[in-house]
């Protein structure tokens, strides 16, 4: 996924369908799946545990990239104050 995000530019809806670019994107996706399969088959342990660890790692990575990084980048601004994060957490807990 990181290769797709860095190597291929985003495509807007009005542009034409380019077969070469889409083929390369799908090739990277297939290589990602083959690598994941290779890692899962080479790790010793129970099959259920391997899939559980893979799913937990995938979900954790998605959480960090989609939730934590935008918060961290936004929190570094001059107008940011931590009291607003604390107030939002307090309102969700209560």
TrEMBL record:
UniProt keyword annotation of Transmembrane present: yes
Cellular compartments annotated: Cell membrane; Endoplasmic reticulum membrane
GO cellular component entries: endoplasmic reticulum membrane; plasma membrane
The UniProt record lists the keyword Isomerase: no
Membrane topology term: Multi-pass membrane protein
Predominant cellular place of this UniProt entry's protein: membrane
InterPro entries xrefs: TMEM147
Alphabetized UniProt keyword annotations: Cell membrane, Endoplasmic reticulum, Membrane, Transmembrane, Transmembrane helix
Family: Belongs to the TMEM147 family.
Full protein name: BOS complex subunit TMEM147
